[in-house]
Amino acid sequence: MINNELNQFLRDYKIKAYCSEIKENSLSRIYDFSLLPGSKVKNLEKYSSEITMFLRECSEPTINIIYQQNIVRFEYIKYNRPNINFFDNVRNYWINHSLNCYIGNSLSNDPVFVNIADTPHILIAGSTGSGKSTLLNVLISNLLRNNVDTNLIDLKGIDFIEYNRFNNFKISSSYEEALQLLKLSVHKMNLLYSFITSGKMKKEEIIPSVIIIDEFADLIMQDFSGEFKNNLLKLIQKCRAVSIHVIIATQRPSVKIIDGNIKANIPVRIACKTSSGIDSRVILDESGAEKLIGRGDSLMRDAQGNFIRFQSAYTTPEDAIKNLILNK
Description:
Layout: H1 2-12, E1 17-24, E2 28-35, H2 41-46, H3 48-55, E3 62-66, E4 71-77, H4 86-90, E5 100-106, E6 111-115, E7 122-125, H5 132-145, E8 149-153, E9 169-172, H6 175-197, E10 209-213, H7 216-222, H8 227-238, E11 244-250, H9 260-264, E12 268-271, H10 277-284, E13 297-301, E14 307-312, H11 317-326
Parallel strand pairs: 7-11, 7-12, 8-9, 8-10, 10-11
Antiparallel strand pairs: 1-2, 2-4, 3-4, 5-6, 5-14, 12-13, 13-14
Helix pairs in contact: 6-8
């Protein structure tokens, strides 16, 4: 019935297209539109707000073009969608690399992965309540599940303190500790390079390590000398070859905090809901994240510049302890 009503709506607006299929899963409703001769994709995009209002969906759609099928796909995330439990779902997927992280499901309900080894760094931003901290918990659980050495810089020193129970997890909770960690990491990077070039070590023998920096803006605001940022740039420019990776997260993205030098070295970026289109453009180079609906609704720009909208999986430090320590 909705197909007939929707197609009548399209005719009323003189849009030369028709809805060919409607699909639904626990996360989303998906509408496939086929173009009629003489129609343009932009005619559908132009009226996306009116179509959304007619369908009574809760947010703007993600619009994808399926060229081979002559389809323009509108994907709407559901407001009352269930949590995706990380540990319940990660067991369903074969993870064949210690840095290949399961982070949630696409709106088609397919698993979404990010391979930090290929990335090689990640930038994450989102306002309060957007799901940024939950996404960090998911990434940390991936790393700990695969025995990756993980260092977290967290000036609050509260949200992630339970992870201290893991031997391969360390927290730096002050600017001084964070700076020392970066200096040691730069030294380690240079040392590993010298070992490889001299033949004392092979790249395959290096144990991967990941540095996660939460609330990056708070650190930069204390970095009056620029020493922290300079060491960070040294690290992210060269450390991929020696299996050191960096994940930067912030609630307050701005060009003063996330400048061009940092973005140039971090091609993969994830935006949870942002406060404005300006914040979205700082992270993704495009607006759109301000239209997300929060609670893990996220947009990822991959290394090729493609966008994936996904629902972040959910977990907590307590879940990690229960599943990774107590169940051993």
